[in-house]
Design goal:
The chain is mostly helical. The protein is built from 8 helices and no strands. The radius of gyration is 22 Å and the shape is elongated.
Length: 268
């Protein structure tokens, strides 16, 4: 009977052979997002896509029995992080130039926080603190320790495989498969150790971008758009908080997925 993760894992395995081409295409698309101005409607679609991908990643890690079943996760984590940063740049460009960044950001800025930018900013800070201090630091430490212990244990495991082969307990093919799996585990844990740094940097970038948006929007609103001080502060703070929330929620989901995967790998 297939497990609950058979469909998700089958999807990843189906394009694993073309993962390099897919990652290259995603990186090129991300560069276009950074360079070319986006319309608010396209930005809405991109933000919704980012949130959907983050939910799928979280669900996949929850139903992954072995970490190597999701061996593409470190590369996927880098691409998703770059996508969120590119969307931050695109939304910042729209916020500062037109004071409007689409329905999704407006919904997060008005409906989620009820139009109160102070409450929204506090919620944004709380989510960022949870992600940066609690989840990211813990996941990074677990990934570092798992990578170190995996590398230290490799000689002993290889000797154990050779001993089983010499004793006739396993065949030559089984010994080769075990060595390959051992090498893949070492590569995966080492990549996860580096990938956890992407999540940490993403959390820091989110805070810096939010502060830049508020300050820059306040100056542009007063000097270029002729707004009053209160209008500029309220308009750009609500938009910036909405932008911060709509990007930090997917970041929180991916950070949680990272923590789940590395703790499962360390316990497995």
């Amino acid at each position: 009977m297939p497990g609950p993760n058979s469909g998700l894992m089958g999807s990843w395995r189906s394009w694993r052979g073309h993962s390099d081409l897919l990652i290259a295409a995603c990186v090129i698309a991300i560069i276009f997002i950074i360079v070319i101005p986006m319309s608010p409607r396209v930005l809405d679609v991109a933000l919704t896509f980012s949130l959907t991908v983050s939910v799928i990643i979280l669900l996949t890690t929850m139903f992954t029995m072995e970490p190597l079943q999701f061996s593409v996760f470190p590369s996927l984590l880098l691409v998703v992080t770059l996508l969120r940063l590119a969307l931050n740049v695109a939304s910042t460009r729209l916020i500062l130039t037109t004071a409007y960044a689409g329905e999704v950001i407006e919904a997060f800025g008005s409906f989620v926080v009820r139009g109160n930018y102070v409450v929204g900013f506090i919620i944004f800070l709380i989510i960022t603190v949870i992600q940066f201090i609690v989840i990211t630091n813990g996941a990074g430490r677990v990934a570092e320790v798992a990578a170190r212990f995996t590398l230290d244990a490799m000689p002993g495991k290889q000797m154990s495989i050779d001993a089983d082969l010499n004793a006739g307990l396993i065949t030559e093919e089984e010994a080769r498969e075990r060595r390959q799996k051992l090498q893949k585990e070492a590569d995966f844990y080492g990549a996860m150790d580096g990938a956890s740094k992407f999540v940490r940097g993403d959390a820091i970038a989110g805070i810096v971008i939010t502060l830049i948006n508020i300050g820059g929007g306040f100056i542009i609103g007063v000097w270029q758009h002729g707004m009053t001080l209160l209008e500029a502060l309220q308009t750009y703070t609500i938009l910036t908080v909405g932008d911060g929330l709509v990007t930090q929620v997917p970041a929180l989901l991916v950070s949680t997925a990272t923590g789940i995967l590395v703790t499962r790998s360390s316990s497995g």
